[in-house]
Amino acid sequence: MKTVTTYENKKILVLGLARSGVSAARLLHQLGALVTVNDAKDFDENPDARELLSMGIRVVTGGHPADLMDEEFVLVVKNPGIPYSNPILEKAMAKGIAIITEVELAYQIAEAKIVAITGTNGKTTTTTMIGELLNQGLDQGQAYLAGNIGLPASSVAQQAGADDVMVTELSSFQLMGIIEFHPHIAVMTNLYEAHLDYHGSREEYVKAKWNIQKNMTKDDYLILNGNQPELVELSKATQATVIFFKTTGDVMANAYLDKGQLCYNGESLMAANEVGVPGEHNIENALAATIVAKLLGVSNASIGDTLRHFGGVEHRTEYVGEFAGRKFYNDSKATNILATEKALSGFENPQTILLAGGLDRGNEFDDLVPSIKDLKAIILYGESQAKLKKAAEAAGIAQIKLVETLQEAVLESWTLSQSGDNILLSPACASWDQFKNFESRGTTFKEAVKQINDKK
């Protein structure tokens, strides 16, 4: 990592722990800063705070006292999820104190090239694809995954060397807290409406996402989704060299879908239906990842081979396995209608049984009707069961089954299916009625599939 002396003997507040806060606190302490950590969780229930205290770092726990900002801090490093309405942050802003997120620290110490990925959907899959493409195809160095994918960027930046690449997934929350952060390559997978409770408006959400390119120059590359007119328009407002990917439309693109082939600069790389994960959204992800790989010197043959064997990301149209001719897919991450629509785009409905349900957000499911027409069957469970049944009836699905639990839904899907069918968990709902999170729901699905297979 680069030698940085900026923070020596400077008072810095790290607001909020979790992985990124712990990483930032450790790094700043290593760089000679006078670090104070503030976390809402009580000290007795806060192993991270106890560990940092043992290192000689000051910790303040059990709340966020605004009078902390009466001290002479020169910088606040905030957990991305803490809103700017937090009293400490409001006071810091009033005093003109800079507020950053941990990815800014990562940039300051990084020797590796940085590839940054953001967007509303597809970030994690695209980040993972890029990592695999580079690790299969780079002549020297390796790719490290970092950022919102679960590995703090400031920790990864300490490991990655000058020949390496940091493939960094970034949320809108993280991008609000950058000052000098400057990726060599940035990807915007798509833009939809999201996180309005945090940002207040779609305009502010888009503004946060667009921060990814604010320090880029003509020597850097900004990869955008040419299917989206909004991103085509935004492309006019950047200094970076823009490269588009597209599956439809007439925008000029370097990576595109043509007659069922993934193409780059006029050359066919592979058949689109050979990509290891199904769905049009994953074709977009593959095209975006391909551009990054080509910019960094990966061969066409290596790209094709890697994408054919790409197994997806856990809980995101994850291929679970084939049992007695039935293929099972875990798309537990689909917590809304749009995500389920995208998942279904990769399957032939007459050979597909959909498992859906959970906790809705007060919405109806009318928008799902076009995507679920002609399904072989739909199996519904959880609190949103009645609303989903109404949509299934409107779609004219012949077999609509209601069960209490996800485990029962898996068992019913086995009964209704035959060799050649796809069984897809893509709930279109949050998980919180029966599970603590979508990961737990997806794990339960996979365990239920395994149990049935073991019995057959």
UniProtKB/TrEMBL annotation:
GO cellular component labels: cytoplasm
Keyword annotations: ATP-binding, Cell cycle, Cell division, Cell shape, Cell wall biogenesis/degradation, Cytoplasm, Ligase, Nucleotide-binding, Peptidoglycan synthesis
Organism taxonomic ancestry: Bacteria, Bacillati, Bacillota, Bacilli, Lactobacillales
Protein task: Cell wall formation. Catalyzes the addition of glutamate to the nucleotide precursor UDP-N-acetylmuramoyl-L-alanine (UMA).
Pathway the protein acts in: Cell wall biogenesis; peptidoglycan biosynthesis
Source organism: Vagococcus allomyrinae
Gene3D superfamilies, alphabetized: Mur ligase, C-terminal domain, Mur-like, catalytic domain, NAD(P)-binding Rossmann-like Domain
Gene Ontology molecular-function annotations: ATP binding; UDP-N-acetylmuramoylalanine-D-glutamate ligase activity
Name of the molecule in the record: UDP-N-acetylmuramoylalanine--D-glutamate ligase
